[in-house]
Amino acid sequence: MAGVMSPRDSARLIAETAKDVTVDAVGVGKVAELIMDLVKKQSFSVKMWKEHELNPKTMDKAAVDWVFLADTLNFSFWSADDQKKYVVKYGGKEHTGYWSLCAAINRALDEGVKITDPMFYANISKDKFLEVFRSDSDTEIPMVDERIEVLHEAGKVLLESYNGSFVNCIKQCDKSAQKLLQLIVTKFPAYRDTATYNGKEVSFYKRAQILIADIWGACEGKGLGEFTDIDTITMFADYRIPQALVYFGALKYSNTLMEKLKKDTMMKTGDREEVEIRGCSIWATELVRDEARKRLDADPETKGAEINAILIDHYLWDYRRDHADKMAHIPFHKIRCIYY
Ligand SMILES: Nc1nc2c(c(CN[C@H]3C=C[C@H](O)[C@@H]3O)cn2[C@@H]2O[C@H](COP(=O)(O)O)[C@@H](O)[C@H]2O)c(=O)[nH]1
């Protein structure tokens, strides 16, 4: 987008001028150390993505259509009351948060509903949406109206300009993640995740970047998922990674901000504190990547090992999920928006 700073440059600028959030070098080193251990155990690669039971296993158009639908709806799963969560039962398990979305998509496909086909969702009615994404608890999925709107928008763009599949967007971008990123944020307005900060147009592009990363993961970096510049994708500025970064000490909040977060103060898109949390999270993850890279290359055993901001992000996100209790005392910022 013309006149908009890249997520990496935005993150550096925000981290340099933020008032209520700071990136801490000692904490960054701690996370880098953690990543090193994982790389040594060889449990750190693009193949991790498909290990999740709900993620698609094929590496074809069906997988890309699934990922595009999931990431078009991949926002705002938190609930104000922990006892009232949107829940989807699938594969004999109860899924919440982001995984409830994936479970609902898979449940629909099993029921013969062509939910990943834009012909189906470009004009989906509210009744049909609520049937497909029905809850197995008393709490329905948050932001129903906004989710229907973004489905209509994305479905129409795919049908009008890309012959009904995101595969055709990928094919126009010569295996460049940055070209695909620009196509997504230009053609699909709901993915245009930007803000104004100190008079500058900054970007986070969280869903656009995770869409590219999920296609890279689903296809194990090959075929439709092959991107020559995938390492230029940054961490995805959601509301969970900051919790993990604060937990490990890589991110620090001022007392004022911490008090606000503990009181569940609602934020709005573009609030200075929201921009500082998101920008500093991206920057902290960039520094973790650089530090881990340095340490990996200093050790003949791990020199040149595969590592990038995507893999670090997924590790931190999965870690937060798997250790939710340990991090429950660290508040996450509350916001209702379609960007993350
Ligand atoms: N930064 C980042 N944000 C991510 C993800 C994912 C799912 N990725 C999975 C697929 C492969 C990976 O290995 C992950 O297992 C969802 N989200 C965001 O989190 C929030 C929901 O969180 P909770 O309430 O706990 O379910 C919401 O904003 C959603 O948009 C990620 O990977 N990174």
TrEMBL record:
> InterPro entries of this UniProt entry?
Q_salvage
Q: What Pfam family does this protein match (any one)? A: Q_salvage
- Keyword field: Hydrolase
Q: What class of enzyme is it?
A: hydrolase
The GO terms this record gives for MF are:
hydrolase activity
- Catalytic activity annotation: queuosine 5'-phosphate + H2O = queuine + D-ribose 5-phosphate
User: Taxonomically, which superkingdom?
Assistant: Eukaryota
Protein family (similarity comment): Belongs to the QNG1 protein family.
What is the protein named?
Queuosine 5'-phosphate N-glycosylase/hydrolase
